[in-house]
Amino acid sequence: MKNTVFFIVFSICFLSSFAQDSLVKDVDSLYKEDQFYAGVTYNLLGKKPHEVSQTGFSTGFYFGFIKDMPLNSRRNMAIGVGLGYATNSFNQNMLIYKDASNKPVYTILTDVSGHYKRNKFSTHVVELPIEFRWRTSTASDYDFWRIYTGFKLGYMFSHAAKYRGSLGDFKYRDIADFNNFQYGLTLSAGYSTWNFHFYYGLNTILNSHASLNGSPIDMNELKIGLMFYIL
User: Fold this and answer.
1) Do 17 and 130 fall within a single domain?
2) Model pTM?
């Protein structure tokens, strides 16, 4: 039995190698950059009220798959459409809690409010990236320059605000003022596996019902980090 299995595996490997050699002239017509991707970002809050400041290190993690659709015969320009998941945290000094009527309330933590170890909100998002892709790759060259720019649409299926400090420990989920749909512009550029990644949110994290000291909270997401593409 072991000899039979070994023979089958050896035969498959041999035939696969032979087929690749015989089809090398035709592979350009089939070449695509279908890719898994993963990355990490440093998360910033844009357009935040002047009282709001970020504390600690806010991170994001994401991964997914992108389908590549070449646009030219050289196949170095393409449209990419994918599906992925992202989780993000934002450490800052704006406390989010719910009053007796279960309505979200926003206030700034100060020295008067007491000391705190953690105050953040976090999100979990299903993402749909759409990219225009340019690269210097070929069917046989896996180390190349790339510039991928595009648009990302996300659906926030879960979020939470968490506080730990002198006021107690509490956590609120599914706050009505969060915008479930998030969208923004993306840019990934680099060489080989390592790529710089940037995301700029075009809409606000919170909707028009959220206010701080009577003014709307128009904060959006800015993310700077690294993107890794895996064939």
Assistant:
1) no
2) 0.83
